[in-house]
Design goal:
By secondary structure, this protein is an alpha/beta fold. Among the domains are: 115 residues, Ubiquitin-like (UB roll) (Roll); 75 residues, Alpha-Beta Plaits (2-Layer Sandwich), CATH 3.30.70; 217 residues, Fe-only Hydrogenase (Larger Subunit), Chain L, domain 3 (3-Layer(aba) Sandwich), CATH 3.40.950.10. The protein is built from 18 helices and 20 strands. A five-stranded mixed β-sheet has the order 2-1-5-3-4, sandwiched between helices. Strand 19, helix 15 and strand 20 form a beta-alpha-beta unit. The longest helix is centred in the middle third of the chain and has 25 residues.
């Protein structure tokens, strides 16, 4: 431990702690801007400067480790003047259209000005050239609002390992973006949206799709269907003042009804369906390999469109490893415009499907040509959790006073296995619950059905399950040990894929989620998403799972009815047509390679 004094308060902290961290641990406020806990430490903004006794210059508290006997002052006149000057200089190169900005009242730069006490602009001079890049279907980049904090650079390079955002040029001409002023849709951006989560201002935002949804709701000739992903129910409440991890499933459904949606379905229904299709695909691959029939292992999940775009760019020769299953919301869209349309006697061309997703990459996913059946796109619009909250407020709905409601059937019932799709390890655990029971006739032998080694936020997690006394159909698996791996975040995916590409992967089944922590930390989730909030959302998702009577996907009666009435069997002709897809090889400039 190191002993020091901050503002005449004697404190002790662990060696290696920075001054900023020491202050926060002891409830001492040091304003900061570019710093982001466990993500970005760069010291570029200098807003967090403090006086350190014996030091000639002010010190960036986010960069300086504590020392024994150090005396720090965070609020002297010299410090306060320096902070104001630094802020005013940044403000002089920043638009003043706060009232019309999407981040108004949810902007870290705006909030910092209030904390520091800025009441007017003192400096007026040349501003850097404004450029709005809205070329991508998922993310909009506005250089005029960028404050050069470089958080997005760190998350894109250091955490996700994609590396398409960097500082270009120097000095006043510095701009954050792809090299050579290239647009986002011309480079190998995965559209994961992690940059939009960490951006403190509106320089990086999801592309707004709310008006498309309002237009559909106003069209009397459209039947507008909405579906919500499992991660939404554990995060939406944060936009209305609820504590992180508060489940608001029932209120969310009520809000959607009040907004005028004709059907409110649950993406969880097709998460259960995904497990049936994906589980059977995995068993088919394993059976083929054991029988000497050429097939590809390990099989890798396909739920995350950011991950899919990443592997198409970086490992285009390994696409046979990816499950052919569409992501759950695309499956539901395809069923809404076929199975459900037939049930209610509606022309699929008059159905408009909206997906509420935690993910900005889903906006890209619905534009893929592979996601069209019978001339109709599976899903017509994707809005993020943040966009849904904005629409609810725009509709004048008092969210806190809403009654609880339930999803519509037949595409609204789900099991607990579907809920845990929201968090890293959840898809694999859900798959194991069903696959193990199909193979052995027995329930997965873990406490509360949870495979503990697959839970949590470690970059790569693994598990092994040995098959004993399987049912006759799978007798060939007796004594076989299934090895699985889970990762979230594209940097972890790269590690596992390097093993696959080298033919050295020890695993049979791998789950990959594009965002660190899984969908609960998606690029469209409420800000901020830090470790504490991520943990609370995870706990809420497991609580939702454990509170259900049905907790295995193959127990969903509406999924079973879907097979009886329409699909007939897993991996059958109709399933292949509606629920499965293929992938494309891409280059570093987002071009098709074949």
């Amino acid at each position: 431990m190191v002993n020091l004094t901050i503002n005449n308060k004697k404190i002790s902290v662990k060696e290696g702690t920075t001054i900023l961290e020491a202050a926060r641990q002891n409830n001492i406020l040091i304003p900061s801007l570019c710093y982001l806990e466990n993500v970005h430490v760069f010291g570029s903004c200098r807003i967090c400067v403090v006086e350190v006794e014996g030091a000639r210059n002010l010190q960036a508290s986010c960069m300086v480790p504590v020392k024994e006997g150090m005396v720090v002052r965070t609020n002297t006149e010299r410090v306060r003047k320096a902070r104001k000057l630094l802020y005013e200089l940044m403000l002089s190169d920043h638009p003043d259209n706060c009232l019309s900005c999407q981040r108004n009242q949810n902007c870290e730069f705006q909030k910092l000005g209030e904390i520091i006490g800025i009441s007017k602009e003192r400096f007026d001079g040349e501003m850097y050239m404004s450029k709005v890049d809205d070329s991508s279907p998922s993310i909009v980049r506005d250089t005029s609002k960028c404050i050069l904090c470089r958080r997005c650079v760190t998350v894109c390079n250091g955490i996700q390992g994609v590396g398409i955002l960097n500082a270009q040029n120097r000095g006043f001409r510095t701009v954050i973006g792809p090299p050579g002023t290239l647009a986002l849709n011309t480079v190998n951006c995965t559209y994961c949206g992690q940059c939009t989560v960490v951006c403190p201002v509106a320089a990086l935002q999801e592309k707004d799709s709310t008006q498309d949804v309002w237009n559909a709701l106003s069209d009397k000739d459209k039947r507008v269907i909405i579906q919500t992903a499992p991660a939404i129910r554990a995060a939406l409440g944060e936009e209305f003042g609820y504590e992180p991890g508060t489940l608001v499933t029932g209120k969310m459904v009520s809000a959607l009804r009040e907004m005028g949606f004709d059907d409110v379905f649950d993406t969880n229904f097709t998460a259960d369906l995904t497990i049936i299709e994906e589980g059977n695909e995995f068993l088919r691959r394993v059976k083929n390999v054991f029988s000497g029939v050429p097939d590809t292992l390990p099989m890798i999940t396909s739920c995350s469109p950011g991950w899919i775009k990443y592997v198409e760019h970086v490992f285009p020769d390994e696409l046979d490893h990816i499950s052919t299953c569409k992501s759950p919301h695309m499956m539901l869209g395809a069923l809404a415009k076929s199975y459900y349309a037939n049930k209610i006697g509606e022309d699929p061309r008059n159905i408009f499907v909206v997906s509420v997703m935690p993910c900005t990459a889903k906006k890209f996913e619905i534009t893929r040509q592979e996601m069209i059946n019978n001339g109709c796109p599976n899903v017509d619009a994707v809005i993020t959790t943040r966009e849904l909250a904005k629409m609810i407020k725009d509709a004048g709905i008092d969210f806190s006073k809403l009654e609880e409601d339930t999803f519509d059937n037949p595409l609204g019932l789900s099991t607990g296995a579907a809920d845990i799709f929201a968090t890293t390890g959840g898809v694999m655990e859900a798959a194991l619950r069903t696959v193990y029971e199909v193979v052995t006739g027995r329930e997965l032998p873990f406490d509360k059905l949870h495979v503990e080694s697959l839970a949590g936020f470690e970059q790569i997690k693994t598990a092994e399950i040995t098959i004993r006394d399987p049912v006759p159909e799978y007798k060939f698996l007796d004594g076989f040990t299934v090895k699985v791996a889970v990762t979230s975040g594209l940097a972890g995916a790269k590690k596992l894929m390097n093993e696959v590409a080298q033919g050295a992967s020890p695993y049979h089944f791998i789950e990959v989620m594009g965002c660190p922590g899984g969908c609960i930390s998606g690029g469209g989730q409420p800000r901020p998403t830090n470790d504490y909030i991520r943990q609370k959302r995870l706990e809420a998702i497991y609580k939702e799972d454990e509170g259900k009577t049905l907790r295995k996907s193959h127990e969903n009666p509406f999924v079973m009815a879907l097979y009886d009435e329409f699909l007939k069997k897993p991996l059958g002709h109709k399933s292949h047509e509606l629920l499965h897809t293929h992938y494309v090889k891409r280059g570093i400039y987002n071009e098709y390679l074949e």
